[in-house]
Amino acid sequence: MTEDELKKLLRTVVSFHDLGKPVSHEHQHRTTTILLTSLLDHLHYNKKQIEFALALIDQDILGNYLKSDPILATNKGQ
User: Fold this and answer.
1) What would the pLDDT profile of 42-54 be if each residue is shown by its tens digit?
2) Distance between CA 70 and CA 2 in Å, rounded?
């Protein structure tokens, strides 16, 4: 994967990492996994790229980072 392809994938994952929250807050990660898999497949990402994206979602790496970043936490809701 090229650097540009990785950036595009990461932007997509960050944009949609909470996709399942409105559907089921209790089962957010499972719902996001299902929806994001379908979306990434539709956008023609390959199996390895989708697995990478799902690994980031599964461990809530992005959510934990976004919650811990002082700049992002300060601007929450703005």
Assistant:
1) 999 999 999 999 9
2) 30
- Cα gap 64→72, rounded to integer Å: 11
Find out whether 18 and 32 touch, Cβ atoms under 8 Å. yes
* Interior/surface letters 34-52, b for 16+ CB within 10 angstroms, e for the rest: eebbebbeeeebeeebbeb
Residue ranges covered by each domain of the chain: 9-74
Q: What is the pTM of this model?
A: 0.69
Residue 61: partners with Cβ closer than 8 Å, 6 or more residues away: none
